[in-house]
Design a protein that fits this description.
Elements (H helix, E strand, L loop, with lengths): L1 H21 L3 E4 L6 E6 L7 H10 L5 E2 L16 E5 L5 H14 L1
Antiparallel strand pairs: 1-2, 2-4, 3-4
Amino acid sequence: RRLRRTHRQRRDVFVEQMQKRLSDKIRLSGTDAGLHCIGHLLQPRKRSDATLCSELAVQNLHLNPLSRYYLEGTPSERIQNGLVMGFAGSSTERLTAAVRKLAKAL
C-alpha cells in the first residue's frame, strides 16, 4: 500500500507539472494507471521523437521514443511522434526538474 501511495503521489506531481509547463506541446495519455505514460507531441515534426530522446539523454533525461514501439514496416504517416515517460522511480523533486528540462528542449 505504501508503494501504491508513493507512486500515486509521484504520478500526480508529474502530471501536474506536465500540464502546467507543456500542455500546449504534449498531450498525456495512460496516466490513470501504471508506472509510465505516453506524451504525444502536438507540434509538427521538427525532429523525430528518437532524435529528441537522444538529445535529452545527453542532458541525463532518459525517455523512450514512442515510434520505437511500432512494427517494422508501419507506414510513416501512421507512426505517432511521442515519448514514453516513466515516473515511478524518481522523487517528486527529480520529476519536477525533468519536466523543466523537457520544457526547455521543446
